[in-house]
Specification:
This protein is of the alpha/beta class. The chain contains twelve helices and 15 strands. β14 (357-359) and β15 form a beta hairpin.
């Protein structure tokens, strides 16, 4: 049905296309066009669309039981928690419905931990240009003034420092006694796929150990195989005190998870936190199927190898391309930075049957499903090259027209 005025709140700038079905890395629109999905629902559909294992798990669980609430034991939740703890080395899990909820739980853990230590107003160190969600607390933790504007007064208790700057953190440690935790993304996705220096996470771990702070990693975007290992922190052989997940954990079924270890694992007690739908049977069954598929289909090595192939091809194609600055990549998380505003590019890509995303105005972000094959990666590069050529030609013409006027 076409509405003269949409009944949905206009909180998104939506592209003029809707999809009816998908298969792997492909989506089909209502008018029958096929699109190569290089954003995977913003790093959500790591197994692609209509994955048979996840579909079967959802159907089987839905035919038996959808919801009982957390007033009772939920077998699927217990099983998923054990699987996640086994994969991550963490001790326990709180389940919510999104990345923002997972980060809210992390923030509450840090504050409760601080109060248990006798700190009246515990503070959490967060990073410039970070993104942790849009609830009031995660919005305050987010280092983006644009998404905060209009929602003041912001939640207090956050200390902001530059990303990838250990010296700045040492200065905070030397000047404040109220800090209890660091909340940080292993790779800043919304900021433009900003990858820190090698050893950054290990340095954070060492500093937190020295100061008695909790190291809390927001892996909502980097987790579940996106960067190659199951979790990005595993590339530096460390373990956080708190780990947050969402997005790809359910492959499209809403679920968030806040994992904790050590003192952080006992900070929250009965009645201190909750979620009506968090960890319900359907979401947990879907998430367990996701984890099984990643292992059964050997997708972690594929994410690494195909990601490396894709990055090399992009470097080869765009070296010397007008306005191209650099490619940043880890596994199948890639960002191509350009000198000009690229916000119009995703609409142009639609005509090439390609779905891409632009973040921070100048970074073309690619987050294809982990099931992407080498042939599909080559096709992605080909379609993106055509798209950027058309975009550049349009920009030149627009620039020339503006000079004439």
């Amino acid at each position: 049905m076409i509405y003269p005025r949409s009944p949905v709140m206009e909180t998104y700038s939506r592209l003029p296309v809707s999809f009816t079905h998908g298969d792997g890395v492909w989506l089909w629109s209502a008018d029958g066009r096929r699109f190569l999905d290089a954003i995977a629902g913003i790093a959500v559909c790591n197994l692609g669309h209509a994955h048979p294992g996840v579909t079967q798990a959802i159907c089987e669980q839905a035919s038996r039981l959808l919801h009982t609430s957390n007033l009772f034991l939920i077998d699927a939740q217990q099983r998923l928690a054990a699987e996640l703890c086994n994969l991550s080395g963490m001790d326990n899990v709180f389940f919510g419905n999104s990345g923002a909820e997972a980060n809210e739980a992390a923030i509450k853990i840090a504050r409760r931990h601080g109060h248990l230590l006798g700190i009246k107003n515990p503070a959490i160190v967060v990073m410039e240009n970070s993104f942790h969600g849009r609830t009031l607390a995660t919005l305050a933790a987010t280092g983006n003034r644009k998404v905060q504007a209009g929602f003041e007064p912001l939640v207090q208790g956050f200390v902001r420092t530059p990303y990838n700057d250990i010296e700045a953190l040492i200065k905070v440690a030397d000047s404040r006694s109220d800090v209890v935790a660091i909340l940080v993304e292993p790779i800043q996705g919304e900021a433009g796929v900003i990858i820190p220096s090698a050893g950054y996470l290990r340095a954070l771990r060492e500093l937190c150990d020295e100061q008695g702070w909790l190291l809390m990693l927001d892996e909502v975007q980097t987790g579940i195989g996106r960067t190659g290992p199951m979790f990005a922190f595993q590339s530096e052989a460390i373990k956080p005190d708190v780990l947050t997940l969402a997005k790809a954990l359910g492959n499209g079924v809403p679920i968030g998870a806040c994992l904790a270890s050590g003192d952080a694992a006992t900070a929250l007690g009965i009645g201190s936190h909750g979620s009506t739908f968090g960890g319900n049977p359907l979401a947990c069954a879907a998430a367990s199927a996701v984890l099984s598929a990643i292992e059964d289909e050997n997708l972690l090595p594929q994410a690494t190898s195909v990601g490396a192939q894709l990055a090399a091809a992009l470097e080869d194609v765009f070296a010397g391309f007008p306005g191209f600055i650099e490619l940043r990549s880890r596994g199948l998380m890639l960002g191509l930075e350009f000198a000009h505003d690229c916000t119009a590019l995703p609409r142009i890509a639609l005509d090439q049957g390609l779905l891409v995303n632009v973040t921070s105005k100048r970074v073309v972000r690619l987050l294809p499903p982990l099931v992407l094959t080498e042939e599909e990666a080559d096709l992605l590069v080909h379609k993106l090259r055509i798209t950027l050529g058309l975009f550049y030609d349009a920009e030149v013409k627009r620039s020339e027209a503006s000079k004439q006027t």
